[in-house]
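Attaching the record inline, Q. Sequence:
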Amino acid sequence: MINSENLSLDKKNIDTILVIDFGSQYTQLIARRIRELNVFSEILPWDVSAEKIKSLNPNGVILSGGPESVTESNTPRIPKTIFELDIPVLGICYGMQTLAEQFGGQVTSSKNKEFGHAKIVIESSSLLLDGFIPSSSVDVWMSHGDHVSTLPNEFNLIASTSSAPIAGMEHANKPIYALQFHPEVTHTKQGKMILENFTFKICKCSAKWKIENLIEQRINEIKEKVGDQKVLLGLSGGVDSSVTAMLLDKSIGKNLICIFVDNGLLRKNEAEEVEALFKDKMDLNLSVVDAKKVFYRHLKGISDPEQKRKIIGRTFIDIFDNEAAKFKDDVNFLAQGTIYPDVIESSGSESKEARVIKSHHNVGGLPDDMKMELVEPLRDLFKDEVRKMGSELGLPLEMLNRHPFPGPGLGVRILGEISQEKVLTLQNADAIFLEELTKAGLYDQVSQAFCAFLPIKSVGVVGDQRRYADVIAIRAVETVDFMTATWARLPHDFLSHVSNRIVNELDGVSRVVYDISSKPPATIEWE
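Structure, as predicted:
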């Protein structure tokens, strides 16, 4: 079976801030904000083992928010190991509440819940709030139903709001701090300053986590692990697998074997573009597999979204297995473009209560007799860090800055049954939309844009004739972290132009609609 031992970060000379996850939607954002300060951060679940915490030798700990209530029984608590390490601690939202409760304070459910913008008043000077003027007010982002109603012994008040009199506190003698609001979100003015104070002035971290240094380190790690042996990589053309390919190419050259599976659910001309870039321009050892007919055959008659996802994932694995079998006597390593959010959301190996959110990242499910070890050089990096690395490695900006594309491809953007005809229509409509966004200078202003093929038909008029044809929805959203998103307010004239092009150029389309749903309550993708 596959050996799960992966390339790991050499943390001997790297200061680390540990983020303890209590289930907040902002947990990953906390870690990203710390890394933006050029300090390494790692996320672990609240019920992680003491041995794992100690092995990281963290310089400080941040306790995330979470959906639970401290006032209920059997809800998450801070591991005792954290306090035994005698290092700085910062509790945020739920992290503050359980910190207060565990130190003898009192937490109560609020009559006036705060979700959104609020103003805090700085009550006293604090190293955490260094640079803030006492008695001044600061705009922050709140998201809580409970609040600390009684300060724990030996804690002092440092901030308050009208509905949460204890919105910030610190221990009188130890470097333990807590905030009811979220300094990690952009809505909190000067939130970066608070995190800088904690990271540098309180935890005394050095800013040594830099992508340019990391590239050289990863190349050396790959060389040491792989030697002169061959590595197999499933190249998708996406940012993660592309950066992985470039790292491996610089490390082992022609000993890297890339397989690109064309599942027939890609963007227009994507297979040709991937081959042109990686095989012709980058001179990678790339094998392109045309599997469109196989995927279409397996998806025939299937309209349930989850079934489609499973079929697409399973079919990919079967085809990749068949290709990989050709090299089974020569290849000892399998490379994957796994990134840190994949690890957090998929593995759950560190937590007793973790739930698997994503079911089929990367290849997965390879047969036991392949006996390959995994090489995952990006598995501790966030997407923005991967993009920076790709830029340093020379990948074109148009690839690195492309909008996200779902793993099952157009399979989840065609609602209902998938056919080759629907795929072609959607590819052409999507290409028109993205082309016009680029020409209008709007592509980089939105975070994700695409077309969806709806499972309905609508009456239209073309020339003097009526036609009963398909409906295309166009979607564009703006977001910082993809956890929440607002629909993009694109100019009406622009939308009109895109609609006219799609209807006039595609015979099978009679109507175009614009999706004005935000996340939540909607999701970004339609399926």
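The two ends are 33 Å apart (CA to CA). Residues 419-514 form a domain with the GMP Synthetase; Chain A, domain 3 fold (CATH 3.30.300.10).

More tomorrow.
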